[in-house]
Amino acid sequence: MIALENAYVQYGQANVLSAVSIQAAQDEIIAIIGRNGAGKSTTLKTMIGLLPLQQGRRHFLGQDISRLPVEQISRLGVALVPDSRRIFPNLSVMENLRIGGLGHKPGYWDIARVLDIFPRLQERIHFGGDQLSGGEQQMLSIARALLGNPKILLLDEPTEGLAPLIVNNLIDIFTLVHQQGTGIVLVEQNLKVPMRLAHRQYVLDHGAVAWSGTSAELEAQREHVEAIITTGAAHAA
Length: 237
Ligand SMILES: Nc1ncnc2c1ncn2[C@@H]1O[C@H](COP(=O)(O)OP(=O)(O)OP(=O)(O)O)[C@@H](O)[C@H]1O
Ligand SMILES: [Mg+2]
Fold this sequence. Notes:
- This protein is an alpha/beta fold.
- It has a single domain, classed as Rossmann fold, CATH 3.40.50.
- It has helices spanning 40-48, 70-76, 93-101, 111-117, 119-123, 134-146, 164-179, 192-197, 215-220, 222-231, 233-236; strands spanning 2-11, 14-24, 29-33, 55-60, 63-64, 78-81, 152-156, 183-188, 200-205, 208-214.
- Strand 9 (200-205) and strand 10 (208-214) form a beta hairpin.
- The longest helix has 16 residues, at 164-179.
- The protein starts with a strand and ends with a helix.
- The site of adenosine-5'-triphosphate (ATP) has 11 residues, from helix 1.
């Protein structure tokens, strides 16, 4: 449903993605895994149109969206939860949610339903964005993205720095979101969460796909894949 095909992306003169081909269907959870600087965030930003393609194509729902700007791509049903979370610190939880729902397509997810899956946010509904813990900010950021009723949700390191209990909670929520019919592209630095959640995985190394496969294939080649992630494709080969 969403795909990058032979994508090349640059920051200035520097090539950051080279020949990246990644696709995710709406009934899938895929993971993109790689260490610091591998090009994971760049890949998500390219998918949603925040960064232009130097070469290659991007597709969504069978349509070539290589030249569409981010506003139009997000209107088609792609949402990004950035690693920075981008909560409005001076607005309450409720105000953050209301802003998230503005101008978006109605659908399964509304404020009542997101508060239902994030009872913590319900308890903190009048708190300011700046009074939330890291985990609560992540929940709010995800809740806000869901209010747009996206067809596909791009998650940039959603579990980074969070306590195991909250990580487990988020895994349950991603499973539920997926069951409701939203595709998920999950970015993480290691295999832990992807192995519990994703159907297929891509490993990025130096801006290129160094390994890809199903969860069963990952299980069988785990040590090799771990080596690619920690030491790079050249050393692991
Ligand atoms: N705005 C930018 N201008 C120039 N170079 C950048 C910019 N953003 C990222 N880069 C470089 O592009 C490469 C890929 O960065 P990217 O943020 O996609 O990596 P990442 O896999 O998301 O890393 P992390 O795990 O640290 O989030 C890195 O070498 C990084 O230094
Ligand atoms: Mg990143």
